[in-house]
Amino acid sequence: MLRVKAGDVDRMGLLFERYHRKLYSFLYHMLGRADTSEDLVQTVFYRMLKYRHTYTGEGSFGPGCTTWPATCWPTTSRRTATASTTPTCRTLPRK
Asked: Cα(22)–Cα(26) distance, rounded to whole angstroms?
């Protein structure tokens, strides 16, 4: 991710190939909806690319991938999700 931050955006494809299945599996397990899980995976990687300049390199990149969707979590739970539900992003308060 540090290389992506430095401008080598082609490396994002490698990160996607390495982590998208794990992230999708996590989201599908949590939401029970394939379409919403796919949309969120795309949203997470889009936001990673968009906000790459804020990446600090602190912590472990891979194991933390299940926390990436925290700012792009659907507003409904698995039980209340409907076909018209789309993920929405929110901004988390700064510490």
From this structure: 6
